[in-house]
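User: I'm putting together a small comparison set for a docking exercise, and I want a reference complex before I start. The sequence is below, and the ligand is 2'-deoxycytidine-5'-monophosphate. Could you produce the 3D structure with the ligand included, as structure tokens?
Assistant: Of course. I'll restate your input first, then give the structure tokens for the complex.
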Amino acid sequence: MSTAKTVPVLTIDGPSGSGKGTISALVAEQLGWHLLDSGALYRAVGYAAGAEGLDLSDAEAIARCAETTRIRFVAAGKGHPARVMVNGHDATDELRTETAGAAASAIAAIPAVRQALVQLQLGFRKAPGLVADGRDMGTVIFPEAAFKVFLTASAAERAKRRYKQLKDKGLGVTLANLLREIEARDERDASRAVAPLRAADDAITIDTTGLSIDTVVAKVFAIVRP
Ligand code: DC
């Protein structure tokens, strides 16, 4: 039996809207590997904290919440993203909102919150392999990963993608607001003291601005299966 350390890991880090989620899911499915959506863990903690009425700036209370929140991914069938159960409640839809993203970004800056989620993330490394999607997968959680990708795209392009997604869901948003939110989140994620958003020194950066999903998937495959 393979021990976790011998199981190959592909880390896909990058800012919100860089296409990480979509690309990671497609690559994991095509490789038949497990998928870790680490952003969903931070979103789940932010959500649980909100449900308990906690003040997001109360680091101690939020850290305790991160330690006690039960988060489970439940497979929803081929081609469908897993459902995310938070303390027994299916919170999948709530976790995808901009509010949940902003709360996640805020609580993710608390070192004890990040620490509380480390073991859970390492546990996703199972045969035959793992695709790990996040901000610090290649730098902090799986620094020895065999394959590391950093996805970027211009802030304008990322805002446009998000705008289209939300519009398709019938949500009323403006492009200018989304751009402002994306820039604010980038700034917070990249400037925090612990595990800031940055490419690992040994990551291969792919700028996805103007590229189709298929093209990006092919570029990632060229790295994993050259
Ligand atoms: O990838 P996402 O949009 O679901 O992530 C939501 C927030 O969670 C993001 O703004 C910062 C935080 N996050 C993090 O700090 N580290 C990770 N590995 C993943 C997400």
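The longest strand covers residues 147-152. The beta strands are 9-13, 34-37, 71-74, 83-86, 89-90, 130-134, 147-152, 204-207.
User: Thanks, that's exactly what I needed.
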